[in-house]
Amino acid sequence: MQTAVFSAKNYDREFLGAAGKAAGHALTFFEPRLDRETCKLAEGFSAVCPFVNDVLDAEVLARLAAGGARLIALRCAGFNNVDLPAAAEHRLRVTRVPAYSPYAVAEHAMGLILTLNRRIHKAYNRVREGNFALDGLLGFDLHGRTAGVVGTGKIGQVLAQILSGFGCRVLLYDIRESDACRAFGEYVPLDQLLAESDMMSLHLPLTPDTRHLIDAAAIARMKPGVMLINTSRGGLIDTRAVIEGLKEQRIGYLGLDVYEEEADLFFEDLSSRVIRDDVFSRLLTFPNVVITGHQAFFTREALSQIAQVTMESLTAFERGEPLEYEVTAAVLRK
Ligand code: NAD
C-alpha cells in the first residue's frame, strides 16, 4: 500500500523500512512533521503514517482526505493528536499501535526514579571532572517506600511489578481496576495515593478527563518532597503548577519524558538554537529535575513491534479485513 510516513527519522527508515519490505508495502519517508503546511506531501498516498507530535486536526484531515488518503496508521499508542470526529466525517479510518513493549516505557520510568534518587545525572558529570565527593548525592532506599502508580493499564502494571520487586509498598489508582495488577499493589482512591506516595508515576492517556490531573490542588495534597514521574503525555501535568511546587519544595524530584509543549522541541537537534520556551527552560534550571525527550518507547523491541503492527494494519486495510486496532470517535464518549 502506498504510504506516506511523516516525522521520519533514520530509525524509522530502518525498522519500518524492513517491515514494509517484508509485507510488500511501498513506504515513502518524509522528514517533516505532518501539519497544515506539509500535508500536501501526502497527496496521492492512500495511507499516512504519523507519529506522536504530528498534527491531525480537522483541517489537516480534510486535506489528507482530499488528497486521496483513506487510512491514518498511527505508529504510536496515544491518539490525542487526532481529531477523531473529523476523521470520521472525512471517512478516514484511524489505527494505532496500542500495545508495543510496555516494558520499554515502564523500565524508562524506573530509570528516571533511580536517576533522580541516586543523582546519577550529577554523579556522571562529577566523576568525569575528577570530582569524587559524595556531598549532595545522598539517596534513599526504595525498599519499604510507598510508590503510587496512576493508571494501571499495560505500562502501569509492568511498573507496579517492577516497584514491588524493589520492595516498595505499591498504591494503585485507575478508573478500571485490574485483577492482574492487584498482585503487585493495593487500589486506593486518588486522594489517598497522593497523600501517601513517596514517589508517583503517571500512566494514563491524555483525555479531557485526565488533562492537568496534576494541578496546583493535586500538588497541595501530595506528600511534601514527593517524586513525580511522567512518561505518558505532557498535558497530564500543569507544568506551571509543577514549577511552583518545585520552587516551594513540595515536589522534591521531577522526572519527565514528555512535556505539554514538546511538539516544538522534541525529536530534533536544537543544540545550536535558542530555546524560546521559558517554561521548559525554567524546568531545566532545577537540580532535582531530569528530562528525557520522549524516548521511553525507544527500544529495539518496541520499534520492531511498532513496525510490525503498523504493517499488519496496512495489510488488513488493503484486504478489506477488520482493523484490530482501529480508534473511532466512540472512544471519546466512553
Ligand atoms: P493503557 O490503555 O493500557 O492504560 C491506560 C490506563 O489508564 C487504563 O487502565 C485506563 O483505565 C486508565 N485511565 C484512563 N482514563 C483514566 C482516568 N480518567 N482516571 C484514571 N485512570 C484512567 O495504556 P498504556 O499502554 O499503559 O499507556 C499509557 C500511556 O503511556 C499512553 O496513553 C501514552 O500516552 C503513554 N505512552 C508514552 C510513551 C513514551 O514513549 N513516553 C510510549 C507509549 C505510551
Content of β-strand? 5-15%
CATH topology of the largest domain: Rossmann fold
Number of domains: 2
The shape is: globular
Based on secondary structure, the structural category is alpha/beta
Report helical residue fraction: 25-40%
In short:
The protein is α/β, with parallel strands linked by helices.
Q: What does this molecule look like?
A:
The chain has twelve helices and twelve strands. With 334 residues, the protein is α/β, with parallel strands linked by helices. The strands form two sheets. The protein has a seven-stranded parallel sheet, sandwiched between helices. The protein has a five-stranded parallel sheet with strand order 2-1-3-4-5. The chain is globular. The two termini are 32 Å apart. Bound molecules: nicotinamide-adenine-dinucleotide (NAD). The site of nicotinamide-adenine-dinucleotide has 27 residues, from helix 4 and helix 6.
